[in-house]
Amino acid sequence: MLKTVRALSWWAVIPPVCVILLAAVWGHKVGGFGLVVVGIALVGAVIVAVHHAEIVAHHVGEPFGTLILAVAVTAIEVGLIIMLMTSAPPGPSTLARDTVFAAFMIVCNGVVGLCLLVGGLRHREVEFHVEGVTATLATLSTVATLALVLPSFTTSSPGSTYSGPQLAFAGTASLVLYAAFVFVQTIRHRHYFLPLETDDEEHPAAGPGRKAAGVSLLMLLLCLVAVVGLAKVESPAIEHVVAVAGAPRAVVGVVIALLVLLPETAAAVRAASRNKIQTSFNLALGSAVASIGLTIPAIAIASIWLKDTLVLGLDPKDMVLLAITVVVTTLTVAPGRATLMQGMVHLTIFGVFLFLSFVP
Description:
By secondary structure, this protein is mainly alpha-helical. It has eleven helices and two strands.
């Protein structure tokens, strides 16, 4: 009992400490040891944010739980993107595109591949609801095409950009699609997204009470504030490290997406190890849908105040990676069961994406 109380106290202490640190460094030039402390606090805030989101998610049950996680992660991602865009030099900005595309590739190949590998090694073959996963994949493919592919082919504005009306339409369409997806996932066809019954469910663990869930919700909000603010403080250091390493600027988007999705990846892999691959897919693919379906409208609204040109269209290399990811993911989920072979294919594509990010 004492061990549990101590663990809970640490999870409750970290969010206010991060907020206090943010208040101490905000508006000041931070260097050297201070940046290291801010970086550690930033990572800690992200991990603790998703931990508290998991507690709230456990309280409300599936599939509402994975939805809360996806929205929390997306809120962090949007905050990071906007903060880094405001601190970047004026000019065309590809940060939103790079981060959203990186999140898409990390989730659909890295997280899905790792979950299938772990589930396949431990349970030989994993099963899931085809109806729920294919509905998620159809939504994801559509919003990804709207946000990342079509801007490269429109003619109303130069380059891989949308004009103002086009951006407003794409953002609205993405938001409508995401709202419809949430309605189907949580109300109309909720059973398509519930985990299949397994032997692991014979003795389900008791969920947290309403008071614990309420405290975790408050801690989650504090973490979101801390993550966004600390990222603003840390952003010059991230840009400097990327420049010194001689890596493309797109690597910044990859770093942001990896940072935000790391705790959620751990949750998805834990579910896969317990033969809850449906929960893993709800977390992974659902967060990808939220990442694009909510990030693009948010960035579209923010672009009213941001003077930078928002570059959204992918280059041909990345379009090929996006296309093969959609095709392979469709082939993976179509049978309703998968093995470690499909996991290895997804992880290979993810490896190609990481390599080409650093060596384009």
